[in-house]
Amino acid sequence: HVQLVESGGGLVQPGGSLRLSCAASEYTYSSHCMGWFRQAPGKERERVASISPSSANPYYADAVKGRFIISRDNAKKMLYLQLNSLKTEDTAMYYCSKGVTRGQGTQVTVS
After folding, report:
1. Cβ atoms within 10 Å, residue 75
2. CA–CA separation, 82 vs 19, rounded Å?
3. How many CB atoms lie within 10 A of CB 16?
4. Residue 30, SS3 per DSSP
5. What residues are paired with 37 via a beta bridge?
6. In angstroms, what CA-CA distances link 103 with 6, 8, 63, 78?
7. How far is CA 25 from CA 53, 78, 109, in A?
8. pLDDT tens, 30-54?
């Protein structure tokens, strides 16, 4: 089964940037849609962005549109999320996902 390992989170000031990475172990990675979602304490899980196998027409939640960029490198089996112009409300645990499978998450704190 696929394993997803996120990295790149941290503490950043408002207006700053971070780049999250997700390494996938599945050999069929390039055939699947991938995504990022986040969850803050006491809040519902929120889908942030998703990307097709060909990287065409990525989806972004309205809250992050114009600030976050999702990308993937199929040869390296990597998924990325560039977080720009970060706001305090972006503070959450960020998870890489393939279907219902997710990684352990990486914490993003904007303060």
Report:
1. 8
2. 4
3. 13
4. helix
5. 47, 95
6. 6, 13, 22, 13
7. 16, 9, 27
8. 888 999 999 999 999 999 999 999 9
